[in-house]
């Protein structure tokens, strides 16, 4: 059974790198992508496929990752889906505060593809729970 990841990211290059790294680990992986929080909520609401993992950037247009996370966690349909905040910076937030909001993990975006692949292995390990 293939695993599905919802990637919520406004940078197309980051989306491509993430999907490439995941595909190296498991070519059968499937991806849903959203470029902002509002689009992510629409995808979750209307898609017939429920993701096994949500990777959520914090700095997004229209609806940022924090507000999107809050909306996801309000909906009981998504309580079992791990959500990873994946951002280049967590300047104004402590990881404890973000976890209190419902993030399972807060991970800083890696600086190179090798680190991204290692991070993707960690993300992939989260998929085994579902």
Write the layout of secondary structure elements.
Blueprint: E1 4-8, H1 12-25, E2 30-34, H2 37-46, E3 53-56, H3 65-74, E4 83-87, H4 95-100, E5 105-108, H5 113-126
Parallel strand pairs: 1-2, 1-3, 3-4, 4-5
Helix pairs in contact: 1-5, 2-3
Explain this structure to me?
The mean pLDDT is 87. A 5-stranded parallel β-sheet has the order 2-1-3-4-5, sandwiched between helices. The longest helix has 14 residues, at 12-25. 27% of the residues are buried. The protein has one domain: 3-Layer(aba) Sandwich (Rossmann fold). It is of the alpha/beta class and 130 residues long. The chain is globular. It has 5 helices and 5 strands, in the order E-H-E-H-E-H-E-H-E-H. It has helices at 12-25, 37-46, 65-74, 95-100, 113-126; strands spanning 4-8, 30-34, 53-56, 83-87, 105-108.
How many distinct folded domains? 1
User: What structural category do the secondary elements indicate?
Assistant: alpha/beta
Major β-sheet annotation: 5 strands, parallel
CA distance, first residue to last residue: 10 Å
- CATH 4th-level superfamily: Response regulator
CATH architecture: 3-Layer(aba) Sandwich
Overall body shape: globular
What is the helix tally?
Answer: 5
Would you give the CATH topology? Answer: Rossmann fold
Order of helices and strands: EHEHEHEHEH
CATH class descriptor name: Alpha Beta
Mean pLDDT over all positions:
87
Content of β-strand:
15-25%
Main sheet strand line-up: 2-1-3-4-5
Low-confidence stretches: none
- DSSP, total strands: 5
Helix amount: 40-55%
Radius of gyration over C-alpha positions, nearest whole angstrom: 13 Å
């Amino acid at each position: 059974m293939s695993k599905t990841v919802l990637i919520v990211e406004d940078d197309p290059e980051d989306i491509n790198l993430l999907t490439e790294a995941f595909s190296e680990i498991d070519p059968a992986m499937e991806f849903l992508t959203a470029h902002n929080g509002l689009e992510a909520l629409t995808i979750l609401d209307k898609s017939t496929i429920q993701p096994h993992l949500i990777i959520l950037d914090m700095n997004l247009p229209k609806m940022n990752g924090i507000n999107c996370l809050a909306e996801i966690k309000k909906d009981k349909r998504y309580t079992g889906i791990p959500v990873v905040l994946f951002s280049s910076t967590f300047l104004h937030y402590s990881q404890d505060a973000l976890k209190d909001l419902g993030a399972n993990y807060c991970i800083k975006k890696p600086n190179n593809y090798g680190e991204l692949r290692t991070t993707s292995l960690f993300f992939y390990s989260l998929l085994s729970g579902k």
